[in-house]
Protein backbone atom coordinates (compact mmCIF):
# COMPACT_ATOMS: atom_id res chain seq x y z
CA UNK A 1 0.00 0.00 0.00
CA UNK A 2 2.78 2.45 0.83
CA UNK A 3 4.46 1.88 -2.51
CA UNK A 4 1.42 2.79 -4.55
CA UNK A 5 0.96 6.07 -2.61
CA UNK A 6 4.55 6.99 -3.33
CA UNK A 7 4.18 6.11 -6.97
CA UNK A 8 1.00 8.17 -7.22
CA UNK A 9 2.73 11.16 -5.64
CA UNK A 10 5.66 10.96 -7.99
CA UNK A 11 3.30 10.62 -10.92
CA UNK A 12 1.47 13.81 -9.96
CA UNK A 13 4.75 15.65 -9.51
CA UNK A 14 5.89 14.60 -12.98
CA UNK A 15 2.56 15.59 -14.49
CA UNK A 16 2.73 19.04 -12.84
CA UNK A 17 6.32 19.61 -13.92
CA UNK A 18 5.48 18.66 -17.47
CA UNK A 19 2.50 21.03 -17.59
CA UNK A 20 4.34 24.07 -16.22
CA UNK A 21 6.67 24.12 -19.24
CA UNK A 22 3.71 25.28 -21.34
CA UNK A 23 2.46 27.99 -18.91
CA UNK A 24 1.87 31.55 -20.14
CA UNK A 25 4.44 34.20 -19.11
CA UNK A 26 4.62 37.98 -19.15
CA UNK A 27 2.05 38.95 -16.49
CA UNK A 28 3.32 41.61 -14.07
CA UNK A 29 2.89 41.33 -10.33
CA UNK A 30 2.73 44.57 -8.37
CA UNK A 31 3.33 44.89 -4.63
CA UNK A 32 2.07 47.98 -2.82
CA UNK A 33 2.61 49.26 0.71
CA UNK A 34 4.21 51.94 2.80
CA UNK A 35 6.86 52.21 5.47
CA UNK A 36 5.63 54.51 8.23
CA UNK A 37 7.23 56.18 11.22
CA UNK A 38 6.89 54.45 14.54
CA UNK A 39 3.50 54.96 16.13
CA UNK A 40 3.09 57.34 18.98
CA UNK A 41 2.00 55.40 22.09
CA UNK A 42 -1.31 56.45 23.61
CA UNK A 43 -2.39 55.30 27.06
CA UNK A 44 -5.83 55.21 28.64
CA UNK A 45 -5.40 56.76 32.09
CA UNK A 46 -7.53 57.03 35.21
CA UNK A 47 -6.98 60.69 36.18
CA UNK A 48 -7.72 59.96 39.85
CA UNK A 49 -4.47 58.08 40.38
CA UNK A 50 -2.79 58.52 36.96
CA UNK A 51 -2.73 54.74 36.45
CA UNK A 52 -2.88 53.19 33.00
CA UNK A 53 -6.04 51.16 32.47
CA UNK A 54 -7.53 48.96 29.79
CA UNK A 55 -11.03 49.01 31.28
CA UNK A 56 -12.99 52.10 32.31
CA UNK A 57 -15.19 50.88 35.15
CA UNK A 58 -18.59 52.54 35.34
CA UNK A 59 -19.54 50.54 38.41
CA UNK A 60 -23.05 49.60 39.52
CA UNK A 61 -26.15 51.76 39.18
CA UNK A 62 -29.57 50.53 40.38
CA UNK A 63 -32.04 50.16 37.49
CA UNK A 64 -34.64 51.97 39.60
CA UNK A 65 -32.53 55.14 39.56
CA UNK A 66 -33.44 55.66 35.87
CA UNK A 67 -36.95 57.14 35.95
CA UNK A 68 -37.05 58.86 32.55
CA UNK A 69 -35.56 58.46 29.09
CA UNK A 70 -32.36 60.49 28.70
CA UNK A 71 -31.09 60.34 32.28
CA UNK A 72 -27.35 59.85 32.72
CA UNK A 73 -25.52 58.50 35.74
CA UNK A 74 -22.00 57.72 36.95
CA UNK A 75 -19.86 60.11 34.89
CA UNK A 76 -16.49 58.34 34.88
CA UNK A 77 -13.64 60.46 33.52
CA UNK A 78 -10.80 58.89 31.57
CA UNK A 79 -7.96 60.47 29.63
CA UNK A 80 -6.13 59.41 26.50
CA UNK A 81 -2.52 60.40 27.23
CA UNK A 82 0.35 60.99 24.83
CA UNK A 83 3.40 61.16 27.09
CA UNK A 84 5.91 62.93 24.83
CA UNK A 85 4.83 65.14 21.94
CA UNK A 86 8.44 65.91 20.97
CA UNK A 87 9.26 62.21 20.65
CA UNK A 88 6.11 61.76 18.55
CA UNK A 89 7.15 64.55 16.19
CA UNK A 90 4.28 66.94 16.84
CA UNK A 91 4.65 70.49 15.58
CA UNK A 92 1.72 72.85 16.13
CA UNK A 93 -0.73 70.04 15.65
CA UNK A 94 -4.13 69.14 16.94
CA UNK A 95 -5.97 65.84 16.88
CA UNK A 96 -9.46 64.42 16.65
CA UNK A 97 -10.56 61.16 18.22
CA UNK A 98 -13.08 58.76 16.70
CA UNK A 99 -14.66 56.10 18.90
CA UNK A 100 -16.19 53.11 17.13
CA UNK A 101 -18.35 50.32 18.42
CA UNK A 102 -21.90 49.05 18.17
CA UNK A 103 -24.36 51.94 18.24
CA UNK A 104 -27.63 51.89 20.14
CA UNK A 105 -30.88 52.09 18.08
CA UNK A 106 -30.71 55.91 17.95
CA UNK A 107 -27.13 55.87 16.63
CA UNK A 108 -26.10 58.48 19.20
CA UNK A 109 -24.72 56.23 21.95
CA UNK A 110 -22.91 52.91 22.37
CA UNK A 111 -25.03 49.78 22.79
CA UNK A 112 -24.38 47.63 25.85
CA UNK A 113 -23.98 43.87 26.05
CA UNK A 114 -27.02 42.04 24.79
CA UNK A 115 -28.22 38.57 25.54
CA UNK A 116 -30.22 37.11 28.36
CA UNK A 117 -28.03 38.63 31.10
CA UNK A 118 -27.65 42.06 29.47
CA UNK A 119 -29.25 45.23 30.84
CA UNK A 120 -32.08 46.62 28.71
CA UNK A 121 -33.06 50.23 28.08
CA UNK A 122 -29.58 51.65 28.73
CA UNK A 123 -26.58 52.67 26.60
CA UNK A 124 -23.19 54.26 27.19
CA UNK A 125 -22.82 57.93 26.40
CA UNK A 126 -19.34 59.34 25.72
CA UNK A 127 -18.64 63.05 26.03
CA UNK A 128 -15.67 65.17 25.00
CA UNK A 129 -13.78 67.92 26.86
CA UNK A 130 -16.70 70.31 26.33
CA UNK A 131 -19.34 67.75 27.45
CA UNK A 132 -20.48 67.31 23.85
CA UNK A 133 -21.88 63.84 23.04
CA UNK A 134 -19.56 61.76 20.85
CA UNK A 135 -21.59 59.61 18.45
CA UNK A 136 -20.18 56.24 17.38
CA UNK A 137 -17.96 56.64 14.31
CA UNK A 138 -17.91 60.46 14.47
CA UNK A 139 -14.72 62.47 15.05
CA UNK A 140 -14.55 64.78 18.04
CA UNK A 141 -13.76 68.46 17.82
CA UNK A 142 -10.02 69.13 17.73
CA UNK A 143 -7.83 68.79 20.80
CA UNK A 144 -4.58 70.78 20.89
CA UNK A 145 -1.42 68.68 21.18
CA UNK A 146 1.58 69.63 23.29
CA UNK A 147 4.59 69.41 20.99
CA UNK A 148 7.14 69.37 23.83
CA UNK A 149 5.56 67.24 26.54
CA UNK A 150 2.49 65.37 27.70
CA UNK A 151 -0.94 65.81 26.15
CA UNK A 152 -4.11 64.71 27.94
CA UNK A 153 -7.33 64.25 25.99
CA UNK A 154 -10.13 64.11 28.61
CA UNK A 155 -13.42 62.24 28.12
CA UNK A 156 -16.35 61.15 30.26
CA UNK A 157 -18.51 58.04 30.07
CA UNK A 158 -22.07 57.74 31.44
CA UNK A 159 -24.84 55.19 31.58
CA UNK A 160 -27.82 56.72 29.74
CA UNK A 161 -31.40 55.50 29.77
CA UNK A 162 -32.74 55.07 26.24
CA UNK A 163 -36.12 53.51 27.11
CA UNK A 164 -38.84 54.24 29.68
CA UNK A 165 -37.80 51.13 31.66
CA UNK A 166 -34.25 50.06 32.44
CA UNK A 167 -33.76 46.45 33.52
CA UNK A 168 -30.84 45.07 35.51
CA UNK A 169 -28.00 43.16 33.86
CA UNK A 170 -24.52 43.45 32.42
CA UNK A 171 -23.98 46.87 30.85
CA UNK A 172 -20.63 46.75 29.07
CA UNK A 173 -19.49 47.80 25.62
CA UNK A 174 -16.40 47.27 23.50
CA UNK A 175 -15.31 50.58 22.01
CA UNK A 176 -12.15 51.27 20.02
CA UNK A 177 -10.62 54.66 19.31
CA UNK A 178 -8.49 56.24 16.62
CA UNK A 179 -6.52 59.46 17.14
CA UNK A 180 -6.01 61.43 13.92
CA UNK A 181 -3.36 64.14 13.89
CA UNK A 182 -4.53 67.15 11.87
If you had to describe this structure to a student in words, what would you say it looks like?
- With 182 residues, this protein is of the alpha+beta class.
- The protein has a single domain (43-54, 61-177), classed as Immunoglobulin-like (Sandwich), CATH 2.60.40.1090.
- It is built from 2 helices and 10 strands, in the order αβββαβββββββ.
- The protein has helices at 2-20, 85-88, and strands at 43-46, 51-52, 72-82, 94-100, 110-111, 122-127, 133-134, 143-144, 151-161, 176-181.
- A hairpin with a 4-residue loop joins β1 (43-46) and β2.
- The radius of gyration is 27 Å and the shape is globular.
Task: Describe how the helices and strands are arranged.
Blueprint lengths: L1 H19 L22 E4 L4 E2 L19 E11 L2 H4 L5 E7 L9 E2 L10 E6 L5 E2 L8 E2 L6 E11 L14 E6 L1
Antiparallel strand pairs: 1-2, 1-3, 3-9, 4-8, 4-10, 5-6, 6-7, 6-9
Features:
alpha+beta, 2 helices, Immunoglobulin-like, 13% helix, three-stranded antiparallel β-sheet, seven-stranded antiparallel β-sheet, 182 residues, disordered N terminus
Instruction: List low-confidence stretches.
Output: 1-20
End-to-end Cα distance = 68 Å
State the helicity in percent bands.
Answer: 10-25%
Q: Report the biggest beta sheet as strand number plus sense, adding barrel if it closes.
A: 7 strands, antiparallel
Number of domains: 1
Average the pLDDT over all residues and give the rounded result. 83
Number of helical segments with 4 or more residues: 2
Tell me the β content: 25-35%
Shape annotation: globular
CATH class type: Mainly Beta
Strand segment count: 10
Query: What's the CATH architecture?
Result: Sandwich
